[in-house]
Amino acid sequence: MPQNEGPPEPWRSFFDELDEMLREPVELHCCGGFIVIHSYGVARTTNDVDLIGLLPNPLRQTLSELGGMGSALHEKHKVYLDPVTVATPPDGYESRLKPLFPGAWRFLRLYALEAHDLALTKLERNYERDREDVQRLARAGHLDREVLRRRYYEELRPYLSRETWHDQTLQLWLESCWPDTSQSENQEQP
Predict the structure, then answer these.
(1) Which of 57, 111, 132, 142 gets the most CB atoms within 10 Å of its CB?
(2) Angle of helix 163-177 relative to helix 128-139, nearest 10 degrees?
């Protein structure tokens, strides 16, 4: 499907109607399952679009009222926008955003987090579905072990509390996504 045609239903109708309600351009920085599916082609289901950022930010409340959980659009289409509260993106993620469905709407502009940035936004919460998403992205070839590790230490870790906890989480992720590499690393260490 060409990018400017937009996503499949019910997402297409949801975003079409949301776009009609807007009066100015809005950028949605999207992460989560919606991006895993529609930007990276990884099989999964979801009924929300997680938003890590939104420009202009003063429209956050308006967009939540128009398309958030419990809104008329949510009731009609059974999908909704969900501003993320437990996720820290790597520093500089904005420069790596990928347009998603460019030209599909008059005012809406959807952007997908780059795969490594997307994975790292899941680190703090670390639910089972977060780990599964990271493993799926790695198996599909969208993640590079060293890029993930480097970006974590250089662009995310300085902004997290409980650094040791998150270091351990990252190590477990690396071992689960690249077991052969992790085993050889452990054998090389004294």
Answers:
(1) 111
(2) 50
Nearest to 176 by CA among 140, 134, 144, 147: 134
Q: What is the pTM of this model?
A: 0.90
Strand partners, 82: 50
- Convert the pLDDT of each residue in 108-120 to its tens digit: 999 999 999 999 9
Q: β-strand 98-100 against 108-112: which pairing, if any?
A: antiparallel
Report residue 69: phi and psi, to 5°: -60, 130
CB atoms within 10 A of CB 64: 18
The pLDDT score that the predictor gives to residue 181 is 72
Size of the chain in residues: 190
Q: Which phi and psi (to 5°) does residue 48 adopt?
A: -140, 165
Backbone angles phi, psi at 42, to 5 degrees: -95, 130
